[in-house]
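Customer ticket, subject: "Can you confirm the structure for Homoserine O-acetyltransferase?"

Message body: Hello, I'm evaluating your service for our small team and ran a test protein. I'd like someone to confirm that this is what the system normally returns, since I don't have a reference to compare against.
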Amino acid sequence: MPIKIPAALPAYETLKQENVFVMTEARAEHQDIRPLQIAIVNLMPTTIDTEIQLLRLLGNTPIQVDVTLLRMGSHESRNAPPGHLERFYVTFEQVMHNRYDGLIITGAPVETLPFEEVDYWDELVSVIDYSHDHVWSTLHICWGAQAGLYRRYGIEKQQLPEKLFGIFPHKVHNPRNMLFRGFDDEFLAPQSRHTESIQETIRKHPALSVESESDDAGIFIVTAREGREIYVTGHLEYDPLTLDKEYRRDVAKGLPIRVPRNYYPDDDPARPPVVRWRAHAHLFFSNWINYVYQETPYDLATLE
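Agent reply: Thanks for trying us out. I re-ran your input and got the following:
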């Protein structure tokens, strides 16, 4: 089954060309089913790229998904095309009385700032608090994971000695966890961050469970409330060239940046990267969607 998105959304044509099953709103009106309601808080500066990455993964399941794109009304984006957010996104105030099967909170380029200094922090706090009893399962990605762990459990973040940047092997602690059905014992995933939530605090917190980690990159996936809260420190959703674009952007700006590890053949940026995480990315998101589908009450009004 497809994801339902507006036909005018730039991601629609891209995904259609990739043979991802997408459905327009007009066609979806004739479907006699209860699709999953998934909201995405897109905080990434690469607005359209991030839409495509997440919608591609959400569209690779047999379950129809209705997607609501959320923006922070308290923040003026300088990166989205003019009028794009106003046309395709809604603010939290517009949906704060709705209930959702799932919610995704993305990363954001603000990780070196204290949380309270982010201009939309108060609004994001309202979204995180709202998700506790209005959303069945919330998936936090990168800085979104740090923000969720800080808001819910008071876990601080700290600066890394240098940017954690590249493709790293990660281990699965519990193969029976619903998120890791079909996973290998070890899998690869992209990381791109300057900070981390303090790992020892996470390990000692009785409400949190470390589900996957890396010898080189540290904790990768943390869960709470039996999967209703999921925190992912990296970027399984990244496209083949996302790290390449980040690397070349920083080089052009003269910023201190190392070649992303385990990404280019022989660590040579002149050679195209080899994608080695795509299958597990699709599997992870499919497992999450299946979990949400199986566990969410049919009537979202009864969700607690």
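A couple of notes from the result: The domain at 3-158+195-240+278-302 is CATH 3.40.50.880 (Rossmann fold). The CA atoms of residues 70 and 95 lie 9 Å apart. Feel free to reply with more questions.
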